[in-house]
Specification:
Elements: H1 2-30, H2 34-55, H3 59-83, H4 108-111, E1 116-120, E2 132-136, H5 142-181
Antiparallel strand pairs: 1-2
Helix pairs in contact: 1-2, 1-5, 2-3, 3-5
């Protein structure tokens, strides 16, 4: 029962991670955030492998999933520090998220709750084929939305890591107990040996 409960809980966590990652992927596509798009894609693949390993009792897939979650926590921690401008990080380098291929920023910058976007005509700051805008009246700034999204990802990853380690330990214990019972050990059933010698008895008449 404990093993089933752990597997079911891990599947629920993986499902929540998958939904959160797909939702995040959509908004990153809308904002042309290529670095997060690549990270989200790898995360989705790792979560699917984790779900497959949980259902099919694959120990190695769960270990891979757990290791990836450590990297995922590190990536989301970097995003939080980036948008909060911790250390030497600055949002003036926001184009790092697009691999410096475009001037787009987070989709939430213009489409956040309550945001009012006003274009600035004939601005000398605008490059070719671009325009300058001002954003005001936002109930929640876009950087805090990105931070909140990353915090949710970290929370789900921590729960997923704990349950992945627990379920993989249960799988390993089951394999060890199966071998101990006599699945493939040397104390299991052995067929009778055929004798290569025939004993002759004298015949009296």
């Amino acid at each position: 029962m404990g093993k089933c409960d752990g597997r079911c809980t891990l599947l629920v966590i993986c499902s929540l991670q998958l939904v959160a990652a797909l939702q995040r992927q959509v908004f990153d596509f809308l904002g042309y955030q290529w670095a997060p798009i690549l990270a989200n894609f790898l995360h989705i693949m790792a979560v699917i492998l984790g779900m497959f390993g949980t259902v099919q009792f694959r120990f190695r897939y769960l270990i891979f999933y757990a290791v990836w979650l450590i990297l995922w926590v590190g990536w989301n921690s970097f995003i939080i520090c980036f948008y909060l401008e911790a250390g030497n990080l600055s949002q003036d380098r926001d184009f790092l998220m697009t691999f410096n291929t475009s001037l787009h920023r987070s989709w939430w910058m213009e489409h956040g709750p309550g945001c009012l976007v006003t274009p600035v005509p004939d601005s000398r700051l605008a490059p070719d084929d671009h325009h300058v805008i001002t954003v005001s009246g936002c109930l929640l700034d876009y950087q805090y939305i990105e931070v909140l999204s990353s915090a949710i990802q970290i929370l789900l990853a921590l729960f997923g890591f704990v349950y992945a380690c627990y379920v993989s330990k249960v799988f390993q214990d089951d394999e060890d107990s199966f071998d101990f019972i006599g699945g493939f050990d040397s104390y299991g059933y052995q067929p009778p040996q055929k004798s290569s010698h025939l004993q002759l008895q004298p015949l009296y008449t």
